[in-house]
Amino acid sequence: MVDRILRAHEAGENFKIIVIMPAVPAFAGDLKADDALGTRAIMEFQYKSISQGGYSILETLQKEGVEDVGRYIRFYNLRNYDRINVSSTMKEAEKQSG
Protein backbone atom coordinates (compact mmCIF):
# COMPACT_ATOMS: atom_id res chain seq x y z
CA MET A 1 0.00 0.00 0.00
CA VAL A 2 2.74 2.45 0.96
CA ASP A 3 4.75 1.55 -2.14
CA ARG A 4 1.75 2.16 -4.41
CA ILE A 5 1.09 5.55 -2.83
CA LEU A 6 4.74 6.51 -3.23
CA ARG A 7 4.63 5.54 -6.92
CA ALA A 8 1.52 7.68 -7.41
CA HIS A 9 3.10 10.59 -5.56
CA GLU A 10 6.30 10.44 -7.61
CA ALA A 11 4.32 10.19 -10.87
CA GLY A 12 1.84 12.92 -9.90
CA GLU A 13 -1.07 10.50 -10.37
CA ASN A 14 -4.52 10.88 -8.90
CA PHE A 15 -4.73 7.90 -6.59
CA LYS A 16 -6.61 7.33 -3.37
CA ILE A 17 -7.03 4.49 -0.90
CA ILE A 18 -10.06 4.58 1.37
CA VAL A 19 -9.87 2.40 4.47
CA ILE A 20 -13.12 1.73 6.33
CA MET A 21 -12.92 0.02 9.71
CA PRO A 22 -15.34 -0.58 12.56
CA ALA A 23 -14.97 1.92 15.40
CA VAL A 24 -14.57 -1.00 17.79
CA PRO A 25 -13.41 -4.28 16.20
CA ALA A 26 -15.54 -6.65 18.25
CA PHE A 27 -18.92 -7.01 19.85
CA ALA A 28 -20.69 -4.52 22.06
CA GLY A 29 -19.38 -4.36 25.58
CA ASP A 30 -17.25 -2.47 28.05
CA LEU A 31 -13.75 -1.88 26.68
CA LYS A 32 -12.46 -1.53 30.25
CA ALA A 33 -13.51 -5.07 31.18
CA ASP A 34 -10.90 -7.80 31.52
CA ASP A 35 -12.49 -9.87 28.77
CA ALA A 36 -11.98 -7.00 26.29
CA LEU A 37 -8.19 -7.35 26.39
CA GLY A 38 -8.11 -8.80 22.87
CA THR A 39 -10.26 -5.99 21.50
CA ARG A 40 -8.05 -3.36 23.11
CA ALA A 41 -4.96 -5.04 21.66
CA ILE A 42 -6.45 -5.02 18.16
CA MET A 43 -7.30 -1.33 18.50
CA GLU A 44 -3.76 -0.55 19.67
CA PHE A 45 -2.22 -2.47 16.76
CA GLN A 46 -4.51 -0.66 14.30
CA TYR A 47 -3.62 2.73 15.75
CA LYS A 48 0.11 2.02 15.67
CA SER A 49 0.07 0.63 12.15
CA ILE A 50 -1.84 3.67 10.88
CA SER A 51 -0.14 6.57 12.64
CA GLN A 52 2.30 5.76 15.46
CA GLY A 53 5.32 3.65 16.32
CA GLY A 54 7.91 4.86 13.83
CA TYR A 55 6.97 2.48 11.01
CA SER A 56 3.30 3.36 10.53
CA ILE A 57 1.71 4.05 7.17
CA LEU A 58 1.40 7.80 7.74
CA GLU A 59 4.86 8.22 9.27
CA THR A 60 6.50 6.27 6.44
CA LEU A 61 4.77 8.36 3.78
CA GLN A 62 5.76 11.59 5.52
CA LYS A 63 9.39 10.42 5.84
CA GLU A 64 9.37 9.74 2.10
CA GLY A 65 8.28 13.33 1.38
CA VAL A 66 4.51 13.01 1.00
CA GLU A 67 3.32 16.20 2.68
CA ASP A 68 -0.41 15.85 2.01
CA VAL A 69 -0.92 12.22 3.02
CA GLY A 70 -4.71 12.72 3.00
CA ARG A 71 -4.54 13.21 -0.75
CA TYR A 72 -3.67 9.54 -1.12
CA ILE A 73 -5.11 7.68 1.85
CA ARG A 74 -7.98 8.29 4.25
CA PHE A 75 -9.29 6.33 7.19
CA TYR A 76 -12.94 6.20 8.24
CA ASN A 77 -14.74 4.26 10.92
CA LEU A 78 -18.20 2.81 11.13
CA ARG A 79 -20.26 2.71 14.24
CA ASN A 80 -23.84 1.99 15.20
CA TYR A 81 -26.02 4.32 17.15
CA ASP A 82 -29.34 4.11 18.86
CA ARG A 83 -31.80 6.53 20.35
CA ILE A 84 -32.25 6.78 24.08
CA ASN A 85 -35.65 7.71 25.49
CA VAL A 86 -37.51 7.63 22.19
CA SER A 87 -40.67 9.72 22.36
CA SER A 88 -44.08 8.32 21.43
CA THR A 89 -44.13 10.69 18.44
CA MET A 90 -40.86 9.24 17.17
CA LYS A 91 -42.11 5.66 17.69
CA GLU A 92 -45.27 6.44 15.71
CA ALA A 93 -43.28 8.09 12.89
CA GLU A 94 -40.96 5.08 12.66
CA LYS A 95 -43.92 2.70 12.62
CA GLN A 96 -45.61 4.63 9.79
CA SER A 97 -42.43 4.84 7.74
CA GLY A 98 -42.07 1.07 7.69
From TrEMBL:
Keywords for this protein: Lipid metabolism, Repeat
| GO MF, one example | phospholipase D activity
Domain of life, source organism:
Eukaryota
Q: Which GO terms describe its biological process?
A: phospholipid catabolic process
- Is Lipid metabolism found in the keyword set? yes
Q: What is this protein called?
A: Uncharacterized protein
Q: Does the keyword Lipid metabolism apply?
A: yes
InterPro entries cross-referenced by the UniProt entry: PLipase_D_fam
PANTHER family annotated for this entry? PHOSPHOLIPASE D (PTHR18896:SF186)
Print the organism lineage.
Answer: Eukaryota, Fungi, Dikarya, Ascomycota, Pezizomycotina
